Amino acid sequence: MLPLKIQSLAVSFPGLATPVLSIDALEIAAGSRVALTGGSGSGKSTLLNIIAGLERVRTGEVIWGGQDIARLSEGRRDRWRAENVGLVMQDFHLFAGLSALDNVLLPARLSRVSTPDLVKRAQELIETVGLKRPGQSVETMSRGEMQRVAIARALLRKPGIIIADEPTASLDLENGEAVGDLLLSVAAGAGSTLVIATHDQRMIERLNRRIVLRGGCIVGDETVREIAA
Ligand SMILES: Nc1ncnc2c1ncn2[C@@H]1O[C@H](COP(=O)(O)OP(=O)(O)OP(=O)(O)O)[C@@H](O)[C@H]1O
């Protein structure tokens, strides 16, 4: 359960007149399910990279549960990310030559936390995302299959934070729905804070806060009231 607080964040790249991301203040409660929307180039991926600790922050604070990740060295940020964040990025970051199962387990093995229980959970997740061949090498997979491997990997350690960039973009309706179910059920079970950049209207409707970016600024922020079951 981790809340996020961003303050005075500005992200610039050399040669650009204005920052690509500029957020004065943003708070996300622990356990929220946030949809991040906005047109192409509005800053969604940049914001996800920043809150995942993938990119260094030079101006501002990005505080997850009291820890300002902008102040961490790269090595400590990497360790913090491995312990706290499940990531599904657009280019998946899978390792060619390894099977689906080995890709799902690789981060846990690198962090030396792989156990027989975790291997069993990896197998179950692969099945849940609808992959029939856990031993298949990822480079022979379709884009949609690779996406599902990346999702299973992100959810393996029931992370406190789940960050996904267009997680249903390569999937048909049925698999998109299954991936949405899985992200939401793992997030609910682990109390994870979920932040998803998406254009998928069905996915957006399943999330309880909608933040809209334009030109690197927040131009919309709506919390949808929970409907009692
Ligand atoms: N390393 C970089 N150097 C220069 N400009 C960059 C860099 N990375 C991102 N940008 C610019 O920052 C802006 C925001 O990019 P970003 O990828 O965050 O947008 P996005 O909303 O995720 O877009 P899309 O929906 O097309 O993926 C864009 O104008 C992009 O060209």
From TrEMBL:
It comes from the Bacteria. Coiled coil: none annotated. GO terms for cellular component: plasma membrane. Residues 4-229 form the ABC transporter domain. Keywords: ATP-binding, Nucleotide-binding. It holds the Pfam family ABC_tran. The keyword Nucleotide-binding applies. One of its GO terms (molecular function) is ATP hydrolysis activity. This is Putative ABC transport system ATP-binding protein.
